[in-house]
Design brief:
Blueprint lengths: L16 E4 L1 H15 L3 E5 L15 H5 L4 E3 L4 H13 L3 E5 L10 H6 L4 H4 L9 E6 L14 H5 L5 E3 L4 H13 L4 E6 L8 E4 L11 E4 L4 E5 L4 H12 L5 E5 L2 E3 L3 H11 L2 E8 L4 H13 L8 E5 L7 H7 L3 H12 L2
């Protein structure tokens, strides 16, 4: 069942915190896990002295050295292939792919090898590998820099797919991903990398994989989202509250495995739903959420379920970027359409 609070309960027992952005929470999470376990290492393009393209690994090279913070050539297939070998023989590599749009050269390594290693070896080997990638649009980046193709990896058995939306969750989910015995795709919403700050414990802690978070309670409609779309969804919900419409906002956090229990529980209460994601509509995770609702709680449905998404087109360049991405206004209007059905 998903958490009913924005924060893991263990937070209340931790007195030392720092005010972090999401990208700072990534860095702190990496550092904490590397201090905790000598087998954890970071590998990727410019992750060393340069600190990564978004500076998520800044300072790690100085603290841990070039045997644990490893710069690589510009070869995503080589990065992931090398990391799979490391994982099979006892290391815990955390790879950085600079942008999700650069992950495709490594697709074969991920789906043909990382995801299948446990099955192929009949359980003799696991693949404790984390693949970090900034994803999504909104930062005026060039072509291939604004992809949101999480559905490719959710479709592949053997992979977990995680997308945080707050600094607290980022550090806790990253720790859980690193400690997981199987490969995890960890997608970081670069649109909100530095958009806001939140108090984050400096101690080690985890946020469990596979559990959604109820960001806002509501009784009229359930809206499911994740990552960079969580903030505009909450903004739309708060605006609708002024009109007497109470929206329940569910941040899925983990797309694989999906928290079906929380989805079903929320829809059973409201009878209406919408899904917000910036990926293209066709074949997106929104369709899987709808299928889950149809299979489990169809008889509670009061209106057609809305998908508020990006368009079935390549992500556009600067001039059309704001039009492509769902915003609070588009989310609000689509929710009202469902409410007024």
């Amino acid at each position: 069942m998903g958490s009913r609070d924005n924060h893991d309960s263990r937070r209340m027992n931790m007195s030392t915190t720092k005010n972090f952005t999401i990208v700072e929470a990534v860095r702190d999470g990496l550092c904490s896990e590397m201090q905790r376990d000598d087998d954890v290492l970071v590998i990727g393009e410019d992750v060393g002295k340069n600190g990564g393209v978004f500076r998520a690994t800044k300072g790690l090279f100085d603290e841990f050295g070039n045997s644990r913070v490893i710069d690589t050539p510009l070869a995503e297939s080589g990065i992931i292939g090398t990391a799979i070998g490391m994982a099979a023989y006892g290391k815990i590599p955390i790879t950085e792919i600079q942008f999700m749009g650069f992950i495709y050269p490594a697709f074969d390594q991920i789906v043909s090898h990382a995801a299948r290693l446990r099955t192929r070896s009949r359980g003799h080997y696991s693949c404790p590998l984390v693949i970090r990638a900034p994803y999504g649009g909104g930062i005026r980046a060039p072509e291939h820099h604004s992809e949101s193709s999480e559905a490719f990896f959710v479709h592949q058995p053997g992979l977990k797919v995680v997308v945080p939306s707050t600094p607290y969750d980022t550090k806790g989910l990253l720790a859980s991903a690193i400690r997981d015995p199987d490969p995890v795709i960890f997608l970081e919403p670069k649109l909100i990398y530095r958009a806001f700050r939140e108090e984050v414990p400096t101690d080690n802690y985890t946020v469990p994989l596979g559990e959604a978070a109820v960001r806002r309670e509501g009784s009229d409609i359930s809206v499911f989202t994740w990552g960079g779309m969580t903030s505009p969804t909450i903004e739309a919900a708060e605006s609708l509250a002024e009109e007497g419409i109470e929206v329940e906002v569910i941040d899925l956090r983990t797309l694989s495995p999906l928290d079906e229990e929380t989805i079903v529980e929320s829809f059973r209460k409201t009878g209406r739903a919408a899904i917000v994601h910036e990926a293209p509509k066709t074949g997106g995770i929104g369709a899987e959420v709808i299928a889950t609702i149809q299979e489990e709680v169809l008889m509670y449905q009061k209106a057609p379920i809305q998908r508020i998404t990006g368009f079935d087109a390549p992500f556009p360049l600067h001039a059309l970027e704001d039009y492509y991405l769902p915003n609070a206004t588009r989310i609000k209007e689509s929710i009202k359409k469902t409410i007024n059905f």
